[in-house]
Fold Cell division protein CrgA.
Amino acid sequence: MPESKSRKKASRPATPSRKASAPTENPVWYKPVMFGLMIIGLLWIITYYITQGLYPVPAFGASNILVGFGIAIVGFLMTTRWR
């Protein structure tokens, strides 16, 4: 059975798909800063509890806990970009 000419598709060269660029490695300082922030935040909170609020910053009072968690959270947020 003869084929209709209108059904034939012109062959097009395959277009090169955009390749996602390979993720680059993090700088050398990234991992120590990330873990350092997590440890500093933990030590901040531990120091607050052990000294019964006298250290690290007595003027902050109970907000020292928020400061410690804030520092640690920045470290944990850095883990999302770690490669």
User: Anything to note?
Assistant: The chain has a mean pLDDT of 88. The first helix runs from residue 30 to 50.
